[in-house]
Specification:
The complex is a heterodimer of chains A (101) and B (166).
Chain A (H helix, E strand, L loop, with lengths): L4 H21 L3 H26 L3 H31 L13
Helix pairs in contact in A: 1-2, 2-3
Chain B lengths: L1 H20 L7 H21 L3 H26 L11 H24 L14 H10 L2 H21 L6
Chain lengths: 101, 166
């Protein structure tokens, strides 16, 4: 059986589920952030697969924009984590349950 | 040949992704970051198999290069030790597993019963020339807006890393 669109979509689904599992189960702020990146990449894989199997390059342009926005998101998020760590000396989500610093 | 490569890299992607999330040997964030780099690398190989060559290069350069260096830099700056074993809420873990399992079942079931007719593999090349032509003609306005977004992110990061947040 040759590899088709649904093979790539299954891989994308499982990768997204792994990322979601990491966000739910892990307690370290940075590992949660890495799991978010995993979920974004699963979405990118599905977009590229659809682009390939429908003969339309628009999906790949969208992936390009997703990668750019993800880079901006990572820089801002990590700056927030560093600022939070400076105030509270922890990166553990159970120590960060108050909204005020 | 391409089919075998797909199975190899799909397996590697999922294996490394699992090791990012739940490494049974270490809960050190640096280990997770290293396995995330490997996940990005095998995803770039999958992109190349889908003949999205430009995106494969961007994936390696931007994600495995820039973003992961940023992650490692912050981990080492904060000097995070391995996640010490805290009391794990059994019910929380169970509920999380059930929720994610239900989500996967819903997605796979909808995949199974949806008519995906795009079986033919057209001669589509996602190399830099074609993607660039599309990006600078049809998608010129979003491209410029994204550059403004990067500027906003840069200003925000500079503001956030000031000594006193006031």
């Amino acid at each position: 059986m040759s590899v088709g669109l649904e093979h790539y979509l299954v891989v994308s689904t499982l990768l997204f589920a792994l990322g979601l599992l990491g966000v739910i189960l892990r307690r370290n702020l940075l590992v949660i952030y890495m799991s978010l990146e995993l979920m974004l990449n699963a979405g990118n894989l599905a977009l590229v697969a659809f682009s390939r199997f429908t003969g339309n390059l628009d999906g790949q342009v969208l992936v390009f924009f997703v990668i750019t926005v993800a880079a901006a998101e990572v820089s801002v998020g990590l700056a927030i984590i560093v600022a939070l760590y400076r105030k509270r000396q922890t990166a553990h989500v159970e120590d960060l349950t108050l909204m005020k610093l | 040949m391409a089919d075998i490569l797909f199975y190899v890299f799909a397996f590697l992607t999922l294996l490394f992704g699992f090791l990012v999330v739940a490494n049974p040997f270490s809960s050190n964030p640096v280990t997770s970051a290293m396995f995330l780099v490997l996940t990005m690398g095998s995803l770039a190989a999958l992109f190349a198999l889908l003949s999205a060559f430009f995106l494969a290069a961007v994936q390696v350069l931007v994600y495995a290069g820039a973003v992961m260096v940023l992650f490692l830099f912050v981990i080492m700056l904060l000097d995070l030790k391995a996640e010490e074993r805290r009391r794990v809420r059994k019910f929380g873990v169970f509920a999380g597993l059930v929720a994610v399992g239900a989500f996967v079942v819903i997605l796979l079931r909808s995949l199974l019963y949806s008519p995906l007719e795009a079986q033919s593999s057209p001669t589509l090349k996602g190399d830099a020339a074609e993607l660039g032509a599309l990006l600078f003609r049809q998608y010129l306005l979003p491209f410029e807006i994204v550059s403004v977004l990067l500027l906003v992110a840069m200003v925000g990061v500079v503001l956030l890393s000031k000594k006193d947040l006031k």
